[in-house]
Amino acid sequence: MVRLCQRDFSGSLLTGAHGPECTHPHQCRIPYWQPGNHPVPREIHLADPYPTIRLSGRIPAILCVFFRRSQQLHSILCQVWCARSDIYFGCWSSHLLRTPFGQSQVESVLKTPSRILIGLTGIIFALLGLRAFQLQVFGYSRYFELAERNRVKMVSTHAPRGRILSRDGEVLADSRPGYSISILPYQIGNADTLARVLSPVLNKSVQALKVKLAEAKKRPLITQRIARDVSIEVVSWVEEHKLDLPGVAVEVEPIRRYPFGDALCHLIGYVGEISQKKLKSLSERGYRYGDMIGETGLEAHYEYYLRGQEGVEFVEVDARGREIGPFPDRKVVVAEPGSDIHLTIDPRLQQLAVEALSNYERGCVFGMDPRSGEVLVSYSKPGFDPNLFAVGISKEAWETLISSPASPMWDRVSKSAYPPGSIYKIVTATAALETRTAGRWTRFAPCTGSFKYGDRAFGCWSKHGRLTIVPAIVQSCDVFFYQIGVALGIERLAEAGLDLGFGRKTGLDIPDESSGLVPTRKWYNDRFGRGKWSKGVALNLAIGQGEMLCTPAQICRVIASIATGGVRCRPYIVSKAIGHRGAELYRAEVEDQRVALKDSIIQILREAMYGVVNDPGGTGGLARSSQFKIAGKTATVENPFGEDHSLFVGFAPFNSPIICLIVVVENAGHGGSVAAPLAGRLIEAYLSPEAKGAT
C-alpha cells in the first residue's frame, strides 16, 4: 500500500525520507509524488484529515475549469479522479484541495458524482427526446413539405385569354402558343455571367439583362420571364446548354394576337406585363409577378371575363433541379381559358373606315345603331400595332410612339375633344325653338357676310341674306345663329347642350372616356375672373366654336337621338361574354331614355338635316346617295394650330335610321368637301348588303 505524500495545514512542503510504506502517517516526509520517479500508486489512504490531491491532464483540467465556481464540486471531482485513476495527476489550476474528509466520506464522495452525471445524462436525453418528438409530430407537415419541395417542382400552366369576336364571329383578337425564356432566380448563380452568356442569344444588351436579372432576384422563389416569343433556334440553344444554365428554362405560354393590327388598336387595346402598382391591389385575385393584363381598351375594361384561370402541374426533379418526369401523387389542375367576348363591331365597315382615311394623316370614324346603341365602327388614326405589346415592347419603340407629334396612342373617338363647329347649330336651334326665341318661320337680320357685336365683327363663310331656321341650318349660316346666341345667352346655350348629352360621358364600355366641356357662366368666371371676359363668347358658342369641346362619340349619340325621334341610347361595344364551357356570363342591355324635346321640334331638326345633304344649297351635298336617303350636318372647326378640321355626322335611311356615323378629318378643311363624301360612302356601303332598297 502506497501512502500519499502530505502537505501541512499551511500548505508548505514537508521534506524527509520516503519509502514504500509510511508507518507514521502524521509525520510522513515522503516528497510529493511525480510521474516517472516512483511506481504508480494503486490505492490511496487518506490519513491526514486534510489531504491534498493534485491532478493534471486534459480531461480533469476541463472538469476543473467547468466546476471551479463551485468549491465543493471542484474538490469532489479532483479527489474522485485521483482515487479512480491509475495515475495521479496534478490539478490544472494548481490550486490545493484541502477538504476534511474521512474514509467513509470518501466512499460517499465516490458515489455522488455518479448520481450527478447520471442525472445530467438523463436530462440531456430527455431534452433530445422532446425535440425529436416535436420535429416528428408537430413539425411533420412543415418538414414533409420542405422535403417534397426538394423533389417536386410545381409548374404553372398558363391559361389563354378569351377571344374577342366581331358581331359575325370573326376573330379580332386571340392567343397563339409561343416560347419564352424564364429563370428561377435563386438557382441562376452569378447574374453578370449569365447576362453575358445570354446577351447574344436573346439579342438583348448585357446591361438590359443585368437590370432584368437584378429585378428578378428580388423575388428569388418566383419563376420570371426574361424573354417572350423567342425563336425555335433560341429554344434549341437553351435546351442544348441546359446543364450549364442552372435556373434557366424554356416555357410555352399563350401570346396575344391581333389580326387587324392598328385597325382596331384603340378599341380593343392591348395587354402588357402587370405593374407593381396594379399587382399590390390585384394579388388577392390570383395575379402574380410577370402576368399579362389588359392595359387599354376592351382588354382592360373586360379583363374580368377575358382572363383565364391558370393550372398547375407537378414535376419530379433531381438534386440539381433537373426535371425527371411527372409526379404521379399530385393531381394536375387544368388551366381554364378566359371567356370569349362578342362585339357589335362590323369588321367590313371597320376595314372600309381604314381605307376611307388612308389618304389623311389624322382622323377618326365612329358609327352606331341609333335604335339600340350598338357600336358598328370605331376607328382612330394614326394607330399602333398592339402585337408589339403582346411580347413586351422595346424601349426604343415605346419612345417613338409617345414622342410622335401625331399621337398614335391617343383614341380620337372617345378621348379627343373637338369644338363641334356648325353641328352645334342643331343644339342652338333646339334651344331657340324651345324658348320661342325663334319659330319655324322667324327671320332675323339678313346675312351680309358678317355680324357686328360691340366693336367686333363676327364673320360668316358666305352671304346668305334673310333666312328662316331650316334654311339657316341647311346653308349653315353663322350670322343667323349669332343673333340667336345673343338672344339666348351663355346659360341657355349651355343648358341645351347638357340636356342633349354634351358635357358628359356617353357610357361607352371602354376606359378613360372624355366628358368634353360645355362652358357656363361660372366656368368663365372661374377661368378668366368675374367681369374679365366678353359677352361675345355667346356668339362663338352658338356656332360651336370657342371653348366648347365634344368627343366624336358624343356628337354621334346626340344626332342619333334626333334621328330616332327623341330616343337616346347608351352606345356599347360588347354584346355578350361566353364562357369556355358555353355558358353566357354577360349580355348587354339596351339603355335608352326619352329626350325632353317636343315632336314638332324634332321634326324641324330632321327636316333641316335632310336638306343639308339633299337640297341644292345644302353644305353636305357630297354625302348624297343615289340609293338611300341620308341626312346629316357638316362642320368646319377652326383650329388655332393649323388647318381647320373637317367634320360630318349623318344617319340613314332617313325614315327608319339603322346607322348614325361621324367622320372627323383633322387639318383637312371644309366639312362638306372632305368629311361629307367619306361619310356618305361609308353609310352607303354599310346599308347596301343588308338594307338594299330601304328608304
CATH class of the largest domain: Alpha Beta
Q: How many β-strand runs?
A: 21
At CATH level 2, the architecture of the largest domain is 3-Layer(aba) Sandwich
Beta-sheet strand percentage?
A: 15-25%
Distance between the termini: 141 Å
Largest sheet geometry = 7 strands, mixed
**Runs with pLDDT <50, length 5+?**
1-70, 80-102, 691-695
Q: What's the pLDDT, averaged over the residues?
A: 82
Can you tell me the number of structural domains?
3
Counted by DSSP, the helix tally is 23
**Helical amount:** 25-40%
What coarse outline follows from CA principal-axis ratios?
Answer: elongated
Instruction: Look at the structure and name the CATH superfamily of the largest domain.
Output: DD-peptidase/beta-lactamase superfamily
Gyration radius, in Å? 47 Å
**CATH fold-type name of the largest domain:** Beta-lactamase
Give the helix/strand class. alpha+beta
Q: What's the short version?
A:
By secondary structure, the chain is of the alpha+beta class. 35% of the residues lie in helices and 17% in strands. The strands form six sheets. Strands 2, 3, 4, 5, 10, 16 and 17 form a seven-stranded mixed β-sheet that branches. Strands 12-11-21-20-19 form a five-stranded antiparallel β-sheet, with helices on both faces. Strands 1-8-9 form a three-stranded antiparallel β-sheet.
